[in-house]
Automatic annotation (TrEMBL):
<dbReference type="Pfam" id="PF08281">
    <property type="entry name" value="Sigma70_r4_2"/>
</dbReference>
<keyword id="KW-0805">Transcription regulation</keyword>
<dbReference type="GO" id="GO:0003677">
    <property type="term" value="F:DNA binding"/>
</dbReference>
<dbReference type="InterPro" id="IPR013324">
    <property type="entry name" value="RNA_pol_sigma_r3/r4-like"/>
</dbReference>
<dbReference type="InterPro" id="IPR007627">
    <property type="entry name" value="RNA_pol_sigma70_r2"/>
</dbReference>
<keyword id="KW-0804">Transcription</keyword>
<dbReference type="InterPro" id="IPR013325">
    <property type="entry name" value="RNA_pol_sigma_r2"/>
</dbReference>
<dbReference type="GO" id="GO:0016987">
    <property type="term" value="F:sigma factor activity"/>
</dbReference>
<dbReference type="GO" id="GO:0006352">
    <property type="term" value="P:DNA-templated transcription initiation"/>
</dbReference>
<dbReference type="InterPro" id="IPR039425">
    <property type="entry name" value="RNA_pol_sigma-70-like"/>
</dbReference>
<dbReference type="InterPro" id="IPR014284">
    <property type="entry name" value="RNA_pol_sigma-70_dom"/>
</dbReference>
<dbReference type="Pfam" id="PF04542">
    <property type="entry name" value="Sigma70_r2"/>
</dbReference>
<dbReference type="InterPro" id="IPR013249">
    <property type="entry name" value="RNA_pol_sigma70_r4_t2"/>
</dbReference>
<keyword id="KW-0238">DNA-binding</keyword>
<keyword id="KW-0731">Sigma factor</keyword>
<dbReference type="InterPro" id="IPR000838">
    <property type="entry name" value="RNA_pol_sigma70_ECF_CS"/>
</dbReference>
<comment type="similarity">
    <text>Belongs to the sigma-70 factor family. ECF subfamily.</text>
</comment>
Length: 243
């Protein structure tokens, strides 16, 4: 049996390449946003969606934002990657989250910058997920109804005839198996496990990010670890059987 807590974090994290791509995309978007923020007030008039909540940041606050938020880019990408299970979508979610965080930074009251940012990532994921479901509903209503029918969504629905999660995972390296097992977990369990084991948040911080009581966080973590361990043992048993 393997515990995700005992696994090297590098194995379960996405590789550095996507994070580098995300950093570049976010940095480009933020440079554009900084330029807009620094523009003269009389040139800032525009549509309602161009308006930013809170007041514009000062140059010092913008520098503080970069210093306090950019170090958490990997954590933001990790959460977005496991929630969306799509590398390209995760980049979009992270970029949106950083733009939202910048716009709201004047109202940031301190505390855990990582937890504050990840809560925004989570909200951006929900926006992305709702948009995706609306698009799917427009194209294939029956498929969306099936997806919404239960918590055990996702990867299990993508299996072809004759395949099981175990047979798919057997073909992967150990690092890929960890990722694959995480992606098989229902979203609420996957979320808390990633926040705790990969992004290293405290129970209280996870509670703040997920918007649920600490007791619920602990219960979900316990269930997530049991599910993870059970799936890992099933995959390990399959690997032993084919040797």
């Amino acid at each position: 049996m393997i515990s995700i807590a005992a696994s090297p974090q590098a194995c379960a994290r996405p590789c550095c390449g996507p994070s580098a791509d995300v950093f570049g995309a976010v940095a480009h978007a933020l440079r554009a946003l900084f330029a807009v923020a620094a523009a003269p007030a009389e040139g800032a008039a525009g549509s309602a969606e161009d308006a930013r909540p809170g007041r514009p940041l000062t140059a010092l606050e913008a520098a503080h934002f970069r210093a306090s938020m950019l170090p958490h880019l990997d954590a933001a990408y990790t959460l977005a990657r496991y929630l969306t299970r799509d590398a390209d979508a995760a980049q979009d979610v992270v970029q949106d989250a950083y733009l939202r965080a910048y716009r709201a930074f004047a109202d940031f009251k301190g505390g855990s910058a990582r937890a504050w940012l990840l809560a925004i990532v989570r909200n951006c994921h929900r926006t992305w997920r709702d948009h995706r479901r609306r698009e799917m509903l427009r194209r294939a209503p029956v498929a969306v109804a099936a997806e919404d029918g239960g918590e055990a969504e996702d990867a299990l629905d993508l299996l072809v005839d004759g395949e099981t999660p175990e047979t798919i995972l057997l073909r992967r390296s150990q690092a890929d198996r960890v990722r694959g097992i995480l992606e098989l977990l229902p979203e609420p369990l996957r979320e808390v496990l990633v926040l705790r084991e990969l992004d290293e948040l405290s129970y209280r911080e996870i509670s703040d990010v997920a918007g649920v009581p600490v007791g619920t966080v602990m219960s979900r973590l316990s269930r997530a670890r049991r599910h993870f361990a059970d799936l890992w043992e099933r995959v390990a048993a399959g690997a032993e059987a084919v040797r």
